[in-house]
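sanity check this:
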Amino acid sequence: MMTELKLSGLAAVLTLGLAGVCAAGGPAESGVAPAEKPPAVASLTVAAAHSLKPLFQEILPIFEIEHGVTIRVLYGPSQTLRQQIEKGAPIDVFLPEGVEEVQKLQKKGLTLNGGARIYAQTSLVLVMSTTSQAASISFRDALPDQAIRVALVDPKTSTMGEVTAKALTKLDPASRNRSRLLHAPHSDDVVNLVSTGGAEVGLVYRVDAINSGQVRIIDEAPAGASLPVQFGHAVVWTCRDSSRDVAEQFFDFIMSPRVQKLLLKYGFDPIPTNG
């Protein structure tokens, strides 16, 4: 009889204990939420012209914070970047130094957002090192002078090179036969050649000259020698489905009034009102 009472008491204690646990709530009901996995951070891979680097250093951190995105930028000659996209490189957004590169992709059906969208433009200028003691010269003086080394971007790899070559041909049809034309992969290399004395003058975009701090503008391309260079944007066919929305948001961000003002700050020209 005593044994039965002891067992009965033990059962009661266990029952009360379990009831207490239920009343207090199990682990899921104790007021402490189970650990949740942090949301996946969206990402965006952007292929861009070197001319955009100073601007991007200011605006990309803003976009990343406001949209919860990480952005990876591949800078390079626009022709090279466009060819990589054609071959399937994992790129979401393309911002070349000439809208023509976007149009080439569009004609092949390799853009996802219709035609090329223009957000900025610039022009071609002649530059000299800021430390040079030589007198400033003009386009028309520099080109025929065989003693002057002229640095420019290679037209075989860059849209900027193509623009420069066309402008030179208009200014001096014999310029392509000059032995002292020094070709470089992109504008940063042209600036480096001029600033270090590898060339007396160089041809770059106005935006590159303004942002370099190493060269000064000594002449503008004469009217008719070169048209304004328009910068285009496209979401390309290699854009990941998970990045499509943020890719569109990035273009809206570039076109926003605050970023358009910053484009002017960094030396770009405003786009036409119908651009």
